[in-house]
């Protein structure tokens, strides 16, 4: 089984994003970047499947600027075998990314595609579902646990009411949730080994994909400051405020 894992370069989750003064977007100058945490979980799951003898090869792919090689090298250091970068300076929206991943999947012919349920920069949570639709493959989102049973993949999903277990015929697309696993720490020897692993660079034009943005961002702004709380002396006062001020009862 070959597994294709999609990863994205985003602002490190420990960094507080800053909005540009003109409101045109988020300021990325001199900001620490890292692999999207949900994608890191997807890489870990793929590597574990390979270590268990279920998968024969793990290929990681990213779409974006040239600096995305950094997150690909991190994935290689985690245990992936080789990497593919679809390099583009254009702002890539979810549909464009899904089309690029579908084109890479057509070249690689994987039996399973893993990616995070969402990216922490835009929280769109759309790419996995659109990719499955483009490929015509079954999908399981918000994966809590995965098991391979012959030509089927058993996935336990996190849903609002608890957990749901589904069986997918391979090939399939799976998006990973936080509780699927805990990604391993990357060691220095593996970082050195990752530098020797193959990393192929492609362009959207070579894949025959138009990545021109279809949506226009009108403005980006900071969220409004949160108002301070109010202490009430007793339950009766709380109910009065909920009824007369908040109008919720």
From TrEMBL:
<dbReference type="InterPro" id="IPR014730">
    <property type="entry name" value="ETF_a/b_N"/>
</dbReference>
<dbReference type="InterPro" id="IPR012255">
    <property type="entry name" value="ETF_b"/>
</dbReference>
<feature type="domain" description="Electron transfer flavoprotein alpha/beta-subunit N-terminal">
    <location>
        <begin position="23"/>
        <end position="211"/>
    </location>
</feature>
<dbReference type="GO" id="GO:0046395">
    <property type="term" value="P:carboxylic acid catabolic process"/>
</dbReference>
<dbReference type="GO" id="GO:0009055">
    <property type="term" value="F:electron transfer activity"/>
</dbReference>
<dbReference type="InterPro" id="IPR000049">
    <property type="entry name" value="ET-Flavoprotein_bsu_CS"/>
</dbReference>
<comment type="function">
    <text>The electron transfer flavoprotein serves as a specific electron acceptor for other dehydrogenases. It transfers the electrons to the main respiratory chain via ETF-ubiquinone oxidoreductase (ETF dehydrogenase).</text>
</comment>
<dbReference type="InterPro" id="IPR033948">
    <property type="entry name" value="ETF_beta_N"/>
</dbReference>
<protein>
    <recommendedName>
        <fullName>Electron transfer flavoprotein subunit beta</fullName>
    </recommendedName>
</protein>
<dbReference type="InterPro" id="IPR014729">
    <property type="entry name" value="Rossmann-like_a/b/a_fold"/>
</dbReference>
<comment type="similarity">
    <text>Belongs to the ETF beta-subunit/FixA family.</text>
</comment>
<keyword id="KW-0249">Electron transport</keyword>
<keyword id="KW-0813">Transport</keyword>
<comment type="subunit">
    <text>Heterodimer of an alpha and a beta subunit.</text>
</comment>
<dbReference type="Pfam" id="PF01012">
    <property type="entry name" value="ETF"/>
</dbReference>
